[in-house]
């Protein structure tokens, strides 16, 4: 039976329309996918960072009274601008640290590979692996990372700093004599052997001593400190180190090296170098501390961060007379790339910068 020409034409038109619809649909999907990718930078951060709360966060936090701690706020805002962020990393190493394969795959400073035996010895002696019963039981914690920048001088922020639940200080930055500007409260002091306070009288009466290990030798040094053994040699350190830490083993911790790994490879985008320490791929201790706080604190603030190289005669640190001009190009750090990351956090309101040094006056 022969089909009428008009019917043939109709079938042909229908086929063309169907094919056209499929092509148009795939083209729109392709465009939508392309547009989605263009919303994010190469690190995975949302390009539009204006500090505006997503609608779901506005509903969640909008009715809280002024000054009330916002549970999960820092992690929620971080996830909003960086969807790959997962709040999974504990602050310190504990006996279950081997289950975190991401740190087991890398040597120091990005992991614990080949250091498991000595870490097990350290953990069996320290016995406590959190901030302490009171802080660990809090449903909402505010944290501030106090940097060592000269920008802290004469700001009279001490009382406000002390109001935070957790006050984190770095290396040997002193408190005594600078309380008006930097406060007197110290929850923990994060450091490495070369940065640790060497004069016992400069230590606070109470605080956690937290090692951030940048090399295998740092774990051996901590073993001497925890076991109160005499340090016979300082070979392998790039400058002098403390030979005693006035803390009980129960007040010593090991910072989770995942934060160094995440800050370097994911958040800042420094060279991977096959997971080895190399030129320009180590984040500063301050940025490592901020990364730690994003995972473990509900609200995060910083003070004393940021170097303004346009003011060479300004003080580099709040506690000494060395000038900004003393900053030299670092072999290990990439300050400009690191600043790009910190500016994102400030612009998006993930962290609050109380001394306005990260954006150098404006974001």
TrEMBL record:
Xref: Pfam families: Glyco_transf_29
Recorded GO MF terms: N-acetyllactosaminide alpha-2,3-sialyltransferase activity
Locations listed in the record: Golgi apparatus membrane; Golgi apparatus, Golgi stack membrane
Primary site of residence: Golgi
Disulfide bridge map: 143-297
Reaction equations catalysed: a beta-D-galactosyl-(1->4)-N-acetyl-beta-D-glucosaminyl derivative + CMP-N-acetyl-beta-neuraminate = an N-acetyl-alpha-neuraminyl-(2->3)-beta-D-galactosyl-(1->4)-N-acetyl-beta-D-glucosaminyl derivative + CMP + H(+)
A GO-annotated cellular component: Golgi membrane
InterPro entries xrefs: Glyco_trans_29, Glycosyltransferase_29, GT29-like_sf, Sialyl_trans
Pathway linked to the protein: Protein modification; protein glycosylation
UniProt keyword annotations, A-Z: Disulfide bond, Glycoprotein, Glycosyltransferase, Golgi apparatus, Membrane, Signal-anchor, Transferase, Transmembrane, Transmembrane helix
Homology family: Belongs to the glycosyltransferase 29 family.
Protein's name in the database: CMP-N-acetylneuraminate-beta-1,4-galactoside alpha-2,3-sialyltransferase
């Amino acid at each position: 039976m022969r089909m009428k020409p008009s019917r043939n034409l109709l079938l042909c038109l229908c086929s063309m329309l169907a094919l056209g619809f499929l092509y148009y649909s795939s083209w729109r999907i392709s465009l939508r996918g392309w547009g989605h990718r263009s919303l994010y930078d190469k690190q995975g951060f949302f390009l539009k960072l204006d500090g505006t709360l997503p609608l779901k966060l506005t509903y969640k936090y909008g009715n809280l009274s002024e000054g009330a701690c916002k549970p999960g706020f820092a992690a929620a805002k971080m996830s909003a601008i960086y969807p790959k962020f997962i709040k999974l990393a504990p602050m310190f190493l504990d006996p279950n640290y081997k289950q975190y394969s991401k740190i087991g795959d890398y040597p120091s400073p990005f992991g614990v590979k080949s250091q498991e035996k000595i870490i097990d010895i350290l953990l069996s002696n320290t016995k406590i692996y959190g901030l302490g019963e009171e802080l660990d039981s809090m449903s909402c914690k505010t944290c501030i990372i106090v940097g060592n920048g000269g920008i802290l001088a004469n700001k009279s922020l001490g009382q406000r700093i002390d109001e935070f639940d957790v006050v984190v200080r770095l290396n040997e930055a002193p408190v005594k004599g600078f309380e008006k500007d930097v406060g007197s409260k110290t929850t923990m002091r994060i450091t490495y052997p070369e940065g640790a306070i060497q004069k016992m009288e400069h230590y606070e009466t109470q605080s956690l001593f937290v090692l951030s290990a940048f090399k295998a030798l740092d774990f051996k040094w901590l073993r001497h400190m925890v076991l109160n053994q005499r340090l016979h040699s300082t070979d392998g350190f790039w400058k002098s180190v403390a030979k005693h830490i006035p803390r009980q083993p129960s007040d010593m911790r090991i910072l989770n090296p995942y934060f160094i790994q995440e800050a370097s490879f994911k958040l800042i985008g420094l060279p991977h170098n096959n997971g080895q320490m190399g030129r320009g791929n180590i984040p500063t201790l301050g940025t490592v501390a901020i990364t730690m706080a994003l995972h473990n604190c509900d609200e995060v603030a910083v003070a004393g961060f940021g170097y303004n190289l346009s003011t060479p005669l300004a003080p580099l640190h709040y506690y000494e007379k060395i000038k900004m001009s003393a900053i030299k190009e670092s072999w290990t750090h990439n300050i400009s790339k690191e600043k790009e990351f910190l500016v994102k956090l400030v612009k998006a309101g993930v962290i609050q910068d109380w001394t306005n040094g990260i954006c150098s006056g404006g974001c």
